[in-house]
Design brief:
The complex is a heterotetramer, with two copies of chain A (179 residues) and two copies of chain B (506 residues). With 179 residues, chain A is mainly beta. Chain A has one helix and 16 strands. The two termini of chain A are 23 Å apart. Classes of the chains: A mainly beta (179), B alpha+beta (506).
């Protein structure tokens, strides 16, 4: 099976994986062949990984079907792994510009909303303040965009995962928005 | 006073467990209190007795001083240890504990009241000859008053909650135009956190270091300084990495700082453990505040002095004389990293979830003060600190490298933590050389400086390949490792068959 | 000699991991070797590189010196650390390592050869003026020769393997009639363990204490003693509890013992870390043997001296001069308990199984040197030691109570362990007062003495009630705690509904 | 439900258990009523237990349907918990005298067998020597009895759980043998 890999830093890699159960693999990356080995130690996320003769204590957590959190030597990587079929199916979808949503990452109280619908925001610009765990936390825009709707108002309690704001990509970049 | 035989610990999490551990070593029975969010917590499980306080919100549970005192009386506890946070620096609670005929394991209410009032403590320190940061001598209830005071001191100034502590209700104001907004936010935060919105001002010192001195006293007038801690790696006045001793402080300055700390404590008739915080700039130090309680970072002092500070607090509370002599020398170097459930990539937003896939570090020179367990819910109700990682080395460089090793052994699944940031900071040249101040972390994060890290260049690529393999063999391995037979792995079963004279397939 | 940059660790389990930890702190790359039984082991996972040696049996894996040297050469390692056991005291292996152009992290082959031969070492010690136990000067190849020698020494005598170590091939013979059987068994055991069935005899000292001195030397002739360890809590010559310093040894005797240990090491041109074992009876000490390697119980020395012995070994092997001065003073007290997978109730039979339900201790003064992990298979192929629990306290009583606390926090599911026995021993009056000798454990188990334990009287009843509840609600709780929603517990979900203005059902 | 409890030390207890899900219990023991609480912390064997106001960190491992290993404060107890129905069903069976078997607790090699069939043995008497994990381990009789059969011979490899010897209760005590 061929996988298309993408890390959160934007690095991309294609790998051809042949699995020799239970735990042995042959990998082909960039024209190189690697022997590899991945053993599930405790069925709770601890893995023993070997690539050629290099050893790794890996911790793996699955976020969804395609996204994995892989931790090696204290460094944490979010990896998207898409297989050939998914890649083919998703190719079309990913070219469409997508609206982004700003969700509460924890339950809390909205203290302040600093933007209004229609307002253009830059990456890192404060959008609102959420009070939780005894701290006031500023929620900022991750990318440039335009505020499409504001779903909360000051004093309102929000649950984890609740949508607080929606952002559209900036008008000019919409057709070429990164997926 | 009689020795303490049964102690109620009015706290939760890591510090409640840490206090219990000392009690169990001293043969003291422990009484835990808990909110409904903490039924499964380790501090409840390992207590001798435990009592439900109420709903999760602190106001309904860990801040219910009345209920806590009632429980202590009913269960026959003879003392209460408040830990840190919650009721630890509330002089009314201390008075109520005494009024109920119980011993408070901490300083006297009077000392706490003075040190809890930032202005009163400044005045007391000036009177005692302890150097303080230049600033206002009266509280400001509104922005206009604050602005007037700031003109006298000269910008930039620090706006601080009179009743504050722990970094809440603090703002830097660099020019007059910022005062209005800063006052409103900070005062509001202070009002919510401490029930008192009044503020005072101090000259903002550029690039100070945060150095604090541990003091320890008894009810008989003995009072000693037990070395210092360097706590300048902080963000929003929340410490992330602490160490003992501090780097590069001349011996005579150090001695003067110890003497000032003891003077500060003596000025308020202090006993028990306490911390005198100083700002250190250009070889000079200024009294910042005194924390009239056990400090989060107390373990680094314990490591270099081989002293159990909680034990000392309990003995002193029971009326014993301090047996430690002044002038004890630290041995080696200790570093602590606070493991918080928060996401440094998202401006330190608290990270909630269920802890799983937990791997704690171990080995030489490593101490883990933790309340984390597999299956623990990280809830929004409390402070985000999950654990403290503490190392001791025969010198600072060994301690630093040991902590790096520890942070690589550690894994916490289910929430984001501060571990990765701490690991990065430890690898900067500034930290390695001990050249840093309280602005370090902010500058570091703003400038995106990338330290020379000792990881393989292709680690990200390896992680990507591991992800691909994981997607491929998910499920397969689980089937292979089924618990058929007696639960031994396939290779053991194969070998056993060989041993027993069966097939020799390998 | 050049500093070591890449080190192959020719061992497994706890000690392989412990050596790795120091390497990672020193910035040294680590190479693990493993048998097919250890593919998932922590020492493999945390290595920089790892290589399969072969099948589980030691002869097919960890004793394959030729293969190990070949791997070291191929992967570019510049040194090999043998840990303890396996190849650690094999002078031919040391010579082969040197012949392959690699550095051996340990003593010179010559010292090892002399000390590995019990008779040769006795002769060398006598020549160096080190007091030895009265006994035979020549090896006995059969029971008759042994019997003749025993007559000369006088019964009771100890029958020991010439090539022995670690308690194997040792028998006490109290009268002539027992010699035949004892010789056959012990000699057979020695033949299997060491490939050499020859025995020698020593006077059996009644109720001796086992006191050993840590020595450390470099290639430049510097040689120091780093305090002593008391290791008298043992059964079948396998230590269970060790501590440092030893109790109740007069200062001048202690100094003489250190000097004798240094003399012993110097007599064989020793460098690296080593241990000189003495029997201590009635204020006198006698050379027993020298272990020419890192000792299992080395951490108690590390704790009281704040020295990393593995680091010292690596530095010395790389040609550095020893920077530690003679006469260093220990601080506080340290105790180690060996956590073995064995059942004290079944005569210490090894206990095999899969480790689960693991709960490791933590907190102040606690060090866990462990290779245990959830899901680990305990196999019949290797030594049964799973982990070492080490505590440090400011005095012996604090260390003792701390270890009791630690053993109560610990839980290991899936196998029986030595933890319960250690906890019992720590609570005996004899241990508390430091009055014990090498016969203590055997007498204790034979006489069934029950120490005053600090557990509630009705603990067994509580356990029975817990069992009844467990039978009742098994399954129910699992359903209740389903991961519906975002994985938060029911009470969080309820509270959240309240917070969000929904139902207020509580 | 009523449970009949028995510890490995021989202590017996009867308890009436009322379960108030998820985790609360009312217990009636020896005429006393107790409030109790047992929470499964990690679904791996760690439990938080309360009896009245006393707290316990319990580790529980199940051996079989009736036998549990309960560890509290470093003390380990093997508890047999039989419910009313099982008790009724098993009452008859348990009065029958039972032969005991000596099983290998680990794989190993039989080095020596010290007894022969028909031989009377005392509690603690060595029966055979098993070599495993580099050590020679003496296997001794747990109770007095008579060797009924010897199933192994020196040099033989045995698997964990394999029966090596069978013991009958001593003739005189057979009718009244403890179960």
């Amino acid at each position: 099976m061929k996988y298309f890999l993408r890390s959160s830093s934007g690095r991309r890699l294609e790998v051809e994986v042949e699995h020799d159960p239970p735990s042995t693999f042959r990998l082909r990356v960039d024209g190189r062949n690697l022997r590899a080995d991945l053993v599930d130690v405790d069925r709770q996320g601890q893995y023993a990984a070997c690539l050629d003769d290099r050893s790794f204590a890996a911790a793996i957590e699955q976020r969804d079907d395609q996204h994995l959190l892989v931790t090696l030597g204290g460094e944490c990587f979010v990896i998207q792994a898409t297989d050939e079929r998914e890649q083919a199916a998703g190719a079309l979808a990913s070219t469409r510009p997508r609206a982004e949503t700003v969700k509460a990452s924890m339950p809390g109280i909205v203290v302040r909303v600093s933007v209004t619908a229609g307002e253009a925001v830059s990456a890192g610009q404060p959008l609102l303040v959420l009070e939780a765990m005894k701290m006031q936390n500023e929620v900022c825009a991750e990318h440039v965009g335009v505020v499409s709707t504001v779903e909360v108002s000051p004093g309102q309690a929000v649950a984890a995962g609740e949508i607080m704001l929606r952002l559209d990509p900036p008008a000019a970049s919409r057709p070429a928005a990164p997926d | 006073m009689a020795p303490i035989r049964k102690l109620l610990i009015a706290n939760r999490g890591e510090i409640a467990l840490r206090i219990q551990r000392t009690c169990r070593e001293m043969g003291i029975e422990t009484v835990a209190v808990y909110s409904s969010a903490d039924r499964e917590a380790l501090h409840v499980r390992f207590a001798s007795e435990s009592y439900l306080l109420g709903d999760p919100a602190p106001a309904d549970s860990y801040l219910r001083g009345d209920r806590i005192i009632e429980i202590a009386q009913q269960c026959g506890a003879d003392a209460i240890h408040p830990g840190f946070g919650f009721l630890a620096e509330n002089p009314e609670f201390v008075a109520a504990v005494a009024a109920a005929g119980l011993v408070f394991v901490g300083p006297p209410a009077g000392a706490m009241a003075i040190m809890g009032d930032k202005l009163a403590s400044r005045q007391a320190m000036v009177a005692a000859g302890v150097p303080v940061v230049p600033g206002s001598t009266e509280a400001a209830a509104d922005a206009a008053t604050a602005q007037a005071a700031a003109e006298g001191i000269g910008y930039p100034v620090m706006l601080k909650a009179s009743a504050g502590g722990g970094g809440k209700g603090i703002r830097v104001v660099r020019e007059a135009a910022e005062m209005d907004g800063a006052f409103t936010t900070a005062s509001g935060e202070a009002q919510r956190a401490f029930g008192d919105g009044r503020m005072y001002l101090e000259k903002f010192l550029e690039q100070p270091r945060h150095i604090e001195v541990q003091v320890l006293g008894d009810r008989h007038g003995n009072l000693i300084a037990l070395g210092e801690r360097e706590c300048s790696i902080q963000r929003r006045h929340q410490k992330l990495i602490e160490e003992a001793p501090a780097v590069g402080i001349p011996a005579d300055t150090r001695e003067r700082m110890y003497a000032a700390a003891v003077d500060a404590a003596r000025a308020v008739d202090y006993f028990s453990a306490g911390t005198v915080e100083f700002l250190y700039v250009d070889g000079e130090f200024y009294f910042l505040e005194m924390n009239t309680r056990l400090q989060v970072e107390h373990p680094v002092t314990e490591e270099v002095f081989a002293v159990d500070l909680v034990e000392q607090m309990i003995r002193v509370a029971g009326g014993e004389e301090l047996r430690l002599a002044a002038g004890m020398q630290p041995r080696g170097h200790s570093i602590e990293v606070r493991l918080n459930a928060e996401d440094p990539q998202k401006d330190f937003m608290p990270s909630l979830g269920t802890i799983h896939n937990l791997r704690l570090p171990g080995g030489p020179g490593v101490r883990v003060d933790s309340a984390v367990y597999q299956g623990m819910e990280v809830t929004p109700y409390y402070d985000s600190m999950l654990a403290k990682l503490i190392v001791h080395g025969s010198n600072r460089e060994q301690a630093r490298r040991r902590m790096m090793r520890v942070l690589k052994e550690l894994h916490v699944g289910g929430v984001a933590t501060s571990a990765g940031l701490a690991l990065t900071v430890l690898q900067t040249e500034a930290f390695r050389e001990g050249r840093y101040d309280t602005g370090f972390l902010e500058r570091f994060q703003k400038n995106g400086e990338t330290p020379a890290r000792d990881v393989p260049d292709d680690l990200e690529e390896i992680a990507m390949l591991v992800a691909a393999m994981h997607r491929t063999h998910r499920g397969v391995v689980r089937v292979e490792r089924s618990d058929a037979g007696d639960g031994l792995a396939p290779w053991v079963q194969v070998h056993r068959r060989n041993l027993l004279g069966g097939r020799t397939s390998r």
